[in-house]
């Protein structure tokens, strides 16, 4: 680790401590130090991060510059994200971002996930998409980070098996807690849960709120289905000029969280790559026409 100088300020992240440092060429970096050289979990996390994010490069993925693998030290050197993680701006009143910027962050995050799923030689499933793992650079461009639970998957296999629970409660897809094979769609579910927190600027689970509002995603969709979108807009503090954008996001959230079986016929990733997220809506025309044909037979 002689090639960099570590600053004294550190912060906890994932399974390790992260230090701010500088390479000899002056570039500021974040150094994630994993503790416990005999801990199997630490070993697995290190291999997962190097084996996934270490092999790919995308603007919306945090870049791994290098790593150290010694008997008493496991460290990962990442690009430094000046503005920290997204959760700092969603759940703290003193640090807020405008709705348009939050929308851009959602789009950038989706592009990063799409790249992992569709454009890598081997598909990468992240397994832990959440605000704390979306880092923001000096211009608030989002970068998907923390690949300690990630897994490479052969594209010929539609499902993959996992050992033990993965992800974070509140964001993890239900199938991750069951003894069944899973697909990359579990990341899409987590992204949907992330969108709910972006639109509401609150945690999805609020134990101090009335029971009817305790689980935010369900409350949002009940209001939307009942034609009470105006109530939702007021509750979330959404300005009138952003209402159309918010409505599209609510539809997208529903598609990912409440009806995951639809994902196979309306792929998220293809639309993201075409930069058409702002136009995303539940496209029922084709399914309706097929339904009409069936009734006529």
TrEMBL record:
Keywords: Glycoprotein, Kinase, Lectin, Membrane, Receptor, Serine/threonine-protein kinase, Signal, Transferase, Transmembrane, Transmembrane helix
SMART domains in alphabetical order: S_TKc
Subcellular localization, as worded in the UniProt entry: Membrane
Record-listed E.C. numbers: 2.7.10.1, 2.7.11.25
Classification via SUPFAM superfamilies: Protein kinase-like (PK-like)
Membrane topology: Single-pass type I membrane protein
GO molecular function, one term: carbohydrate binding
The protein's name in its UniProt record: G-type lectin S-receptor-like serine/threonine-protein kinase
Annotated source species: Glycine soja
Lineage, uppermost ranks: Eukaryota, Viridiplantae, Streptophyta, Embryophyta, Tracheophyta
């Amino acid at each position: 680790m002689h090639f960099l100088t570590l600053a004294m300020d550190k912060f906890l992240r994932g399974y390790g401590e992260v230090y701010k440092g500088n390479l000899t060429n002056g570039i500021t970096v974040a150094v994630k130090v994993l503790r416990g050289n005999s801990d199997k979990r630490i070993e697995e996390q290190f291999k997962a991060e190097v084996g996934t994010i270490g092999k790919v490069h995308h603007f919306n993925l945090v870049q791994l510059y290098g790593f150290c693998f010694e008997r008493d030290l496991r460290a990962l050197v990442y690009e430094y994200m000046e503005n920290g993680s997204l959760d700092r701006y969603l759940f703290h009143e003193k640090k807020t971002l405008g709705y348009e910027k939050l929308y851009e962050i959602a789009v950038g995050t989706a592009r990063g996930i799409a790249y992992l799923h569709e454009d890598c030689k081997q598909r990468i499933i992240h397994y832990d998409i959440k605000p704390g793992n979306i880092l923001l650079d000096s211009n608030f461009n989002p970068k998907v980070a923390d690949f300690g639970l990630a897994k490479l998957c052969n594209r010929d296999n539609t499902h993959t098996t996992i050992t033990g629970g993965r992800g974070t409660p509140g964001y993890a897809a239900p199938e991750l807690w069951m003894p069944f094979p899973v697909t990359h769609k579990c990341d899409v579910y987590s992204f949907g849960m992330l969108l709910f927190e972006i639109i509401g600027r609150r945690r999805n689970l609020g134990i101090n709120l009335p029971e009817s509002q305790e689980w935010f995603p369900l409350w949002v969709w009940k209001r939307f289905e009942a034609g009470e979108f105006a109530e939702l807009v007021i509750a979330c503090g959404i300005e009138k000029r952003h209402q159309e954008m918010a409505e599209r996001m609510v539809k997208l959230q529903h598609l990912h969280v409440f009806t995951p079986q639809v994902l196979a016929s309306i792929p998220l990733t293809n639309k993201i790559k075409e930069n058409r997220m702002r136009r995303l809506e539940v496209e029922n025309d084709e399914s309706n026409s097929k339904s009409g044909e069936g009734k006529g037979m």
